[in-house]
Amino acid sequence: MFEATALNRRNDRTQALFRMLFLLMTLVLIVPVLIILTTLIVKGGPVLSVDFLFTSPTDGMTAGGIFPALFGTIWLVAVALLVSVPLGVAAAIYLSEYAPDNWMTRVINLAIINLAGVPSIVHALFGVGAFVIFFGFGTSILSASLTLAIMTLPVVIVASRESLQAVPHAFREACWNMGATRWQTIRKVVLPNAVSGILTGVILEVSRTTGETAPIMFTGAAFFLPFLPQSVFDQTMALSLHLFVVSTQVPGVPEALPYGVALVLIAMVLLMNSVSIAFRMYLRGKKKW
Amino acid sequence: MVAAAIAAQGVVHKLAVRDLNIRYGDHVALSGVSLEVREHEIFGIIGPANAGKTSFLKALNRMDMFDSAMRVDGTVEFNGRDVRQLRNVYALRKRIGVVFPLPVGLPMTIYENVALAPRLSGIRDRAELDVIVERCLTRAALWDEVKDRLNSLGSLLSGGQQQRLTIARALSQSPEVLMLDEFSIAVDPVTTMRIEDVLKELRSEMTIVLVTNLVQQARRLADRTAFFLDGACVEIGDTEALFEGEVQNPKTRDYIEGRFG
Fold first, then answer.
1. B120, A177: Cβ pair inside 8 Å?
2. Is there a contact between B121 and A179 if contact means CB atoms under 8 Å apart?
3. ipTM of model
């Protein structure tokens, strides 16, 4: 009674075929990642050195290091974070804990989704109009970081709101029933249990911000600067723009140099992502309920 | 004789509810409920699911404030004051301890679970908090089991222990009224009996409103019992009398005897 019929055998073959097909497609996904990483390491690896990271470009950017660009990227990301994290987390707390379900909240949610969908070049032009010209910050770290901040705000809001929503509603009700106000409940019970998720979202945002080029191109990143920025009102070099410049805009750059820049950039992003993943795994390990 | 004398003077009720209606949007959860809860009694509320029992409790301590869909009208008096006119609803909630069907151990230490509410009301003194924590855990019959690990997470206790922790937390502000909503639903029979003993002792100090899914639990504990059905209070009476069959509405007898519900 357990012999395979012709139909069974055909079903088995079809099922094996589809399994192979899906496996192949999944492998295709990994191929570009592997190619990018190996190319960068093989071609860019040799130029990497402590000197490369900590000296300025020389000889019309055809030699020397990338220090001003590396330094500038860290500046840009830090200032962008200082703006977007408080703003984004506050908005997420409002939307998750206070906002009534009415048309205004729905409009705000729609705005956030749309903000996430705006192309980065449009953000760049908005940044020029708003921060460089209207607020008069000029092309500066401040303008560029504010543009980056607005661009990444939806990510922070959505990640924070989701981690707030992941805290069971029963915890809030228990607090309210004891006579706690909404804010006391948020401070004592909701935030302490959501902070890990919020941090994960923030780290992911950092890694995204690091690689952005278009939004900073017109608002604060410079082609080449012989000195480091002294304040947020100065222009700065940035890794992502530097990569674009040495790959396409400067004649006579040795082939390995752009690969080296790209390798540093991608290493920064991957480092950030792995920190975020490790952090999440660590917190999942000590779950509290 | 004594009862008549008190009635003549006008009994001061702990809670007096008149014409209470509760709606969620178009759905009517409770309509036309009027009843009084006397001081130091255990007032039982029985009835099948969706009878409006939980909504009733939420109206008593103004939890409708946190539910935008919930509409309440009618009057609820606490110590003779209409809670719907109160400005300081937080002070009201501090006088009413609440225990939920599912135990809620907050994700903080056992100590902090009990000390949270006193802290939020401004008690900073560690010694004073120690006293509150020990007293409340003892009264909730949990102290002996957790006194050596007050710094471990309250949310990782077993279900029965978490429910007693919830009771300890509800007692942490010395409430005048304790409301329990089907507290035994997720608790083993032994813990249920221990909590019932706790409630019998607490009766001398506070008024208890006990919503229960177990008819026999109402019989064991409640002085008077109300029967809710489909959003209405069908019957209120002395528990013993109800269980002896002295009912106005035949449905009450059917429910008590387990013919539906």
1. no
2. yes
3. 0.89
